Amino acid sequence: MGTNKQSFSAPRGMRDFYPEDMPLRNAVFAAWHTAAGQHGFQQYDACVVETLDLLKKKSGDEIIGQIYDFTDKSDRELALRPEMTPSLARMVAARQNALRFPLKWYSIVQCFRYERMSKGRKREHFQLNLDIIGENSVLAEVEVISAATRALESLGLGPDDFCVHVSSRALLTDLLLKLDIPADHHPATFLALDKLGKISKEATSELLLTSGLDRSHVESVLSLLAIKSLDEANNILGAPTPASMRLSDFFQFMESYGLSDRVAFDISIVRGLAYYTGIVFEAFDRSKELRAIFGGGRYDNLLGDIGGNPAGGVGLGFGDVVLAELLTNKNSSIGVPNTADTGVGYMSEEQKPAAISLSLSLRQENILVDLALHPEKAKTFFSRADRSGFQQAIFIGPDDVASGTVRVKNLKTGEQQQMDLA
Amino acid sequence: MGTNKQSFSAPRGMRDFYPEDMPLRNAVFAAWHTAAGQHGFQQYDACVVETLDLLKKKSGDEIIGQIYDFTDKSDRELALRPEMTPSLARMVAARQNALRFPLKWYSIVQCFRYERMSKGRKREHFQLNLDIIGENSVLAEVEVISAATRALESLGLGPDDFCVHVSSRALLTDLLLKLDIPADHHPATFLALDKLGKISKEATSELLLTSGLDRSHVESVLSLLAIKSLDEANNILGAPTPASMRLSDFFQFMESYGLSDRVAFDISIVRGLAYYTGIVFEAFDRSKELRAIFGGGRYDNLLGDIGGNPAGGVGLGFGDVVLAELLTNKNSSIGVPNTADTGVGYMSEEQKPAAISLSLSLRQENILVDLALHPEKAKTFFSRADRSGFQQAIFIGPDDVASGTVRVKNLKTGEQQQMDLA
Q1: Rounded distance, CA A212 to CA B413, Å?
Q2: CA of A380 vs chain B CAs: smallest distance (Å)
Q3: Given pLDDT bands bounded at 50, 70 and 90, which one contains residue A295?
Q4: Quick check: B69 contacting A, CB < 8 Å?
Q5: Is the peptide bond before A102 cis (omega within 30 degrees of 0)?
Q6: Which residue has the higher pLDDT, B394 or A307?
Q7: Distance (Å) from the C-alpha of residue A175 to the closest C-alpha of chain B?
Q8: Chain A contacts of B143, Cβ < 8 Å?
Q9: Is the CB of residue A360 less than 8 Å away from at least one CB of chain B?
Q10: Distance of CA B416 to the CA centre of its chain
């Protein structure tokens, strides 16, 4: 036929999920749903296709360059969403007068980014989004992080496996002002600092110089990265600022939540997205080999930026790709294969009606039944049943129909039991 | 601010799901998952973005004109899938030597079609796909329909609500040959007949004439639509053909499944997609006011068409939009609101630690807890709790912390119970 193997592949960076890939994904989604629900979040969703205009208004420059955009047959400019926050902001703004605040919403959605392929990156991933909008209390930050750590815990990942690194853009702003770096240089400084770890210190310096900082300011900025605690930050500031006091409250709440062993102050956390204004955080595996497990922070202008009434909030995004790597590295056996409980087979067409009626009764009792679609030899049926991972197998021959009973074989223990065919 | 309302809308034809829209959708998805699992289907998935090339190979002409296609930043030709079957064929072909047949797979996926907006149509929808590949027995057709009717049943929709209309392209082929209509006119004839019901009989005649049939043949084709039973078809054919015997077997099996009251022979069912070759079916509401609830049929060349080894099978697609209309028309109260079980509030910052520790204990017991993020007056808290749909509400004041007990108010009955704060 002259076809090439190529045509059987998914587009580059996009994933297929074969049946053996689903149990892990389903276990992750279930952990996300449960943790979000336990924390009182309500589920919402929006279509993966968004208007390009909205994404341009809301997303940072870095993301705009990575958007899958296209025009539809009416020349509408559309795009596959790179993140959920713009859609969330749009939906909330559309009903801002009718909704009750603070609002706690979550979604599990697919997002797309066109970027170079590397370990832990695909061009699409699934993502849990937790957002609390219209709430100033730092308990909002605490609750989204608590929900995310609860999801990790239910997947078997505890304080030995990951740590949430926490800082604050407001604190960093205080520190930059203390260093006499004017406010209009701050956005570029944030972006450059966010790149550290991905690019070298030299490259970061270069970025800061290009953004207009002079060499001595660049050195002061990089010196901030030596700050190891909130106390050290307060020492530089002279006295605690509202931003540093808020961070201190945050860590105290985390302690009352019993989560102190899962958080650490880390001045290098800045986040790439433009819209964060307060506390920011990223969770990493303890050996820091992988990309961030989840991340988020406080934004003050979520709705204002797209034309709604200004309302602040806290958001958290938690992807499935790094999490799956973490679980794999840990040899986790999360996820139960989604095979049928019971296989039903039969020797010839004569026993088919009995096999059908037995299958219907079992299904009526909510048992997952794989009914053979054609007759087989007993040997063929049982070897197929063994490979399929069924819990039990029932094979109906002529004698069984005559006697009105059939043997149920437990495929795990090999035990056999007689069962009434009716 | 001069922003227009426009920017708060989803793209045309795309849906937002607010928290109040999720319970129905989740109930439908759960019914699909359960019915598929009970019938021994295994879940799979593929990315909504496919290569345009694959879709061109597999989909009929009608669909190609409705595809959302685009090029990525490397000039790859991609598209949002209009249906799942091409992706399924691709995935199976890629592992054809390793997979065991017959295979029974299902997926719940989003599909996109750019078409004129009308009742029951969006430009995206979610869809259950059931496929059995590598099986010739008509029991394959029976099992996919049984799974779909089981899903409807669990949503409260029975024989009074819908009927599966069934015919066969192979039978229609026999009839057309009997009328001396050459085989190369059959594909165009199928497409024209599929349009009946959407367009007038006159317009259908016109289509048939344009496709090259002469006027007397057009009249014979349209006369076939008067056939009301399999017996009448057999009378025209002179004797039962393999195709009519297969249909007869199908109806017999449906009877042994107890589903006779949910199926009917209907010669007008043809299906629009090019790849069907045998039995085809579409389920409609009894008053036939809505579009098809689900549809599908047998295809013989699913894998061969895209370059794999030929293998036949049966597929069924079941969308969420018409189903939701049907449930709404029936005033169905399917779906439980996804609100928290318990709201926890407190009068001042002093009671916050007690509220936190109580919430953590409740969550540990898998209770869904909405913890207030800031202090409120009792009246504000209880009025908010009433509107939120919580089952119960707990408000902590200074006296409660002092006494170590707190009142739990059941919001449905108004009953109050004392509870230990520790």
Answers
A1: 66
A2: 13
A3: very high
A4: yes
A5: yes
A6: B394
A7: 29
A8: 371, 373
A9: yes
A10: 44
Q: Does A183 contact chain B (CB < 8 Å)? A: no
Could A143 and B9 be called an inter-chain contact, meaning their C-beta atoms sit closer than 8 Å? Answer: no
Q: Kindly state whether A132 is in contact with chain B, defined as any CB-CB distance less than 8 angstroms.
A: yes
Across the interface, do A47 and B114 touch by the CB < 8 Å criterion? no
Q: Which of B57, B108, B58 is nearest to B85 (CA)?
A: B58
Residue A286 sits at φ, ψ, to 5 deg, of -60, -35
CATH 3.30.930.10 fits B19-329, yes or no: yes
Between positions 297 and 316 of B, the ones with CB within 8 A of A are: 304, 306-308
Of B8, B45, B257, the CB nearest to A356: B257
User: How close B79 gets to chain A, by Cα (Å)?
Assistant: 10
In chain A, where the domains are located? 19-329, 342-420
Tell me if A327 sits within 8 A of A307, measured CB to CB.
no
Average of per-residue pLDDT across A49-68: 82
CA dihedral B58, B63, B66, B71 (to 10 degrees): 0
Helix locations, B48-129, DSSP H? 52-58, 61-64, 85-94
Residue contact A374–B137, C-beta within 8 A:
yes
Residue B3 has pLDDT above 70, yes or no: no
Distance from CA of B262 to the nearest CA of A (A): 16
Whole-number percent of chain B with pLDDT over 70: 95
pLDDT of residue B1: 35
In DSSP terms, B125 is beta-bridged to: B111
**Residues B68, A70: C-beta atoms closer than 8 Å:** yes
* Residue A407: closest CA among A392, A387, A385, A391: A392
| CATH no. for A342-420 | 3.40.50.800
Dihedral sign for Cα atoms in the order B372, B375, B380, B381: positive
CB contact under 8 A, A366 and B38: yes
Q: Is a pLDDT exceeding 80 seen at residue A337? A: no
pLDDT tens per residue, range B126-159: 999 999 999 999 999 999 999 999 999 999 999 9
Is the minimum CB–CB distance between B403 and chain A shorter than 8 Å? no
Mean pLDDT across the stretch A83-89?
Answer: 94
Report yes or no: A213 and A221 within 8 Å, Cβ to Cβ: yes
Q: Which residue in B22, B44, B105 is closest to A44 by CB distance?
A: B22
pLDDT of residue A336: 67
> With an 8 Å Cβ cutoff, is B385 touching chain A?
no
As a whole number of angstroms, the distance between CA B398 and CA B411 comes to 22
Q: Per residue, what are the HEC states of chain A?
A: CCCCHHHHCCCCCCCEECHHHHHHHHHHHHHHHHHHHHCCCEECEECCEEEHHHHHHHCCHHHHCCCEEEECCCCCEEEECCCCHHHHHHHHHHCCCCCCCCEEEEEEEEEECCCCCCCCCCCEEEEEEEEEECCCCCHHHHHHHHHHHHHHHHCCCCCCCEEEEEEEHHHHHHHHHHCCCCHHHHHHHHHHHHHECCECHHHHHHHHHHCCCCHHHHHHHHHHHHCCCHHHHHHHHCCCCHHHHHHHHHHHHHHHCCCHHHEEECCCCCCCCCCCCCEEEEEEECCCCCCCCEEEEEECCCCHHHCCCCCCEEEEEEEHHHHHHHHHHCCCCCCCCCCCCEEEEECCHHHHHHHHHHHHHHHHCCCCEEECCCCCCHHHHHHHHHHHCCCEEEEECHHHHHHCEEEEEECCCCCEEEEECC
Q: Mind telling me how many Å the CA of B181 is from chain A's nearest CA?
A: 30
CB atoms A373 and B256 under 8 Å: no
